[in-house]
Amino acid sequence: MQIPIIDFQPFTEGDSATRQAVAQQIYQACHEIGFMYLKNPGISPQQIAALFAQSQSFFNLPLEVKQQLAWSDEVSNRGYVGVERERLDPDKPGDLKEAFNVGKEVSSHDTVPNMIVNKWLPNQEDFQTEVLAFWDTCSKVVEEVLQAFAIALQVPEDFFVIKHNQQNHTLRLLHYPPISQLLKPGQVRAGAHSDYGSITLLFQDQVEGLEVQTKDGEWILAPAIPGTVVVNTGDLMQRWTNHVFCSTKHRVKIPVDERIMRSRYSVAFFCHPNYDAEIACLPSCSLENPAIYPPISAGEHLLSRLQATY
Fold this sequence. Notes:
Layout: E1 5-7, H1 9-13, H2 16-32, E2 35-39, H3 45-59, H4 63-66, E3 79-81, E4 98-102, H5 125-152, H6 159-163, E5 170-176, E6 190-193, E7 199-204, E8 210-213, E9 219-221, E10 228-233, H7 235-240, E11 250-252, E12 264-271, E13 278-279, E14 296-297, H8 298-309
Parallel strand pairs: 1-2
Antiparallel strand pairs: 2-10, 3-4, 4-5, 5-12, 6-11, 7-10, 7-12, 8-9, 8-11, 13-14
Family: Belongs to the iron/ascorbate-dependent oxidoreductase family.
InterPro entries: DIOX_N (IPR026992), IPNS-like_FE2OG_OXY (IPR044861), IPNS-like_sf (IPR027443), Iron_ascorbate_oxido_reductase (IPR050231), Oxoglu/Fe-dep_dioxygenase_dom (IPR005123)
Pathway: Antibiotic biosynthesis
């Protein structure tokens, strides 16, 4: 099975019939494999390149500097995550990667109860500006993808957008360092896992490693394709759709050639519903099969998944 490439520009610029046709392509991809490449997603190559350059500069900082921003708890889910700190596959050793998580930026003038703020280093204005601009761009892209999902699933076009209007999304910069140490049994760069939320946008460099598991249990490579972004559905979308859309396991394997001595960089944007959103089976997804899951709040689900991986 191949991961399909879908041109998203006709959806953002086309008429109703064109949008419906693209939504149907997305439906097929989400139903059959849970992964797709979106071509022309509305993010310029220049903006992607600029963010990757800033990410590389950040991860090149000394460890003691990055640790000043150390990730501290599941509720905030922000800051720096060191190598082997996270285990995406709880049965395997810690992942050979480091990460930096950013959520929605809130101003010190905002009066938000229990306000959660991002962690930034002083004198890193260019880094902060580039990261937040990319966060904003991805937020706009996922809104349009969520509209396509709604059309595909025969619910009002703004159904998912409203359920995500608090923008509880996470932008994650990822670095997989060169590997020179002895590996622990079963250790990889990112363990086999499914994503927790609604949808994920993934940007990756040319150092391959991402693999996606098909329904037959086979692992297939998902290389970087210029001009596209990888999009996959997460656990909550699978739950919402009663498995009409599937949340597929994926991993980042360790290269078996000279790339084991090269850094790998990627950027993930995790789209998550409002914390108080009730995730209950959509009526259009229970016509043939009864609901598999009881309703759950999105926030409760996210906290339980994060607690299991740290």
